[in-house]
TrEMBL record:
It comes from the Eukaryota. This is Spherulation-specific family 4-domain-containing protein. Pfam families: Spherulin4. Transmembrane segments: none annotated. Residues 1-17 form the signal peptide. Keywords: Signal. The lineage of its organism: Eukaryota, Fungi, Dikarya, Ascomycota, Pezizomycotina. InterPro entries: Spherulin4.
Length: 394
């Protein structure tokens, strides 16, 4: 069987990289936030939105010494936006109390001992009942009060109804809306289509706590990549509750989530997405294939292959479906005239609907080979258009 591949036209990537949204509700005792600092430093191209929470709020207009140290450290990184926590109690919070808390967070900007500035507010428990007008009134008042308190300081607003947005006005009132916040057992990729209105992916955020008892690291990566593929604005998968946000014991610690997202960040900044159309397949013609034996089957397979070259990265989008046949994807990169064969992958799957090659220098990718057994020829002929701004192929 023949294996042929075609590099199709380049598409401009719609570079809206998915940020890592982290409810960091732990008290910054010495060392507790260190895994977060490490992840920030290891991923300078990934933007972090980090929510600090002293005591279901700011607990005053001046940070205590532990928060001074912790927040100043967060603010020392150019890829971090620090947000303060306030809660709306689904519309039953007192507006006076809410605005007093927003003002307290704003006051952290003026603290003189260190840079404890707060660049945004996370409005937890946003009221979001279909058919009401009071929710919009409530949130309008809350945001106006916050903006007034922050004055000339920049203010990013995130609403957290944690579900599909029932009020179109929220897309205007807030910079981001959390359109899903629930445990991992309730999540599937269908949320990306059911809860995100057309054109709103970049303003949508997803938070999935309690992942440890449900998923594997590979699944976490797959979900994050699918989110990034549709251009979700900010996301996170956390192993436990937010008060254990820095735990590294589960399958999806912050280090893993950050590195899963950063691959897509790199892709977005590369400005070029080339699409491969797989015309036919055979393993016999595959030159320079470094086959990687299929590892165990993973239910949700979105395979990514990292290249050994900094110039190229390979991702197969969320475009593959389960079980067994295709065993390797290869790219060759020409770097300074010497081909560097780069392969990785894979878990096993039956159908490849597309392979996405993202490279900072498109000319260095000269061929892509998909090797498959005879059984997959037909399915490999399927070709789906894929780009970041589109829905994940199902
Ligand atoms: C305001 O902040 C205090 C102290 O952090 C907190 O106890 C209270 O629940 C907060 N209220 C609102 C409405 O955010
Ligand atoms: C404080 O940190 C924030 C966030 O990194 C930054 O935007 C701001 O410029 C810093 N302020 C000063 C005075 O350095």
């Amino acid at each position: 069987m023949k294996c042929s591949t075609i590099l199709a036209a380049s598409l401009a990537a719609g570079s809206m990289a998915t940020k890592l949204l982290l409810p960091l509700y732990q008290y910054p005792m010495s060392g507790v936030w260190d895994p977060v600092f490490t992840a920030i430093e290891a991923n300078p191209n990934l933007d972090f939105q980090i929510i600090v929470n002293v005591d279901t709020g700011p607990a005053g207009s001046t940070p205590n010494s532990d928060f001074v140290t912790g927040v100043a450290k967060l603010n020392s990184y150019s890829n971090v936006l620090t947000l303060g926590y306030v809660h709306c109690s689904f519309g039953s919070a007192s507006q006076d109390e809410l605005s007093a808390n927003s003002s307290d967070w704003a006051a952290w900007n003026a603290y003189s001992g260190a840079n404890t500035s707060i660049g945004g507010l996370f409005f937890d428990e946003t009221p979001n009942t279909e058919g009401t007008t009071s929710d919009v009134t409530f949130m309008t008042t809350a945001v106006e009060a916050a903006k007034s308190a922050f004055g000339s300081y920049a203010l990013t607003t995130i609403f957290n109804p944690g579900a599909a947005i029932m009020h179109d006005e929220f897309w205007t009132l807030a910079d981001y809306n959390v359109i899903f916040e629930d445990s991992a057992s309730e999540y599937s990729d269908s949320v990306l289509t059911s809860n995100i209105p057309s054109g709103k992916a970049g303003q949508s955020a997803i938070l999935i706590p309690d992942f440890a008892s449900v998923g594997t690291a590979a699944e976490a990566q797959t979900w994050l990549q699918a989110m990034a593929a549709v251009g979700v604005g900010a996301a996170n998968i956390l192993d436990y509750d937010y008060i254990q946000a820095t735990s590294s014991e589960g399958p999806a610690p912050v280090a893993l989530v950050a590195s899963a997202l950063v691959d897509v960040v790199d892709a977005a900044t590369s400005a070029v997405v080339s699409e491969v159309s797989v015309a036919a397949a055979t393993s016999s013609s595959v030159a320079k294939t470094t086959s990687v034996a299929p590892t165990t089957s993973v239910a949700k397979t979105s395979v990514k292959a990292e290249t050994t070259s900094a110039a190229a990265k390979v991702t197969t989008a969320a475009a593959v479906t389960s079980a067994a046949e295709v065993t390797s994807v290869e790219t060759e990169t020409e770097t300074q005239g010497s081909p560097a064969a780069v392969v990785t992958v894979m878990t096993t799957f039956t159908t490849v609907t597309s392979v996405v090659i993202v490279t900072a220098a498109p000319e260095v990718v000269d061929s892509v080979t998909v090797a498959a057994s005879s059984a997959t020829t037909t399915s490999l002929n399927r070709h789906h258009h894929w780009q970041r701004a589109h829905k994940v192929v199902s």
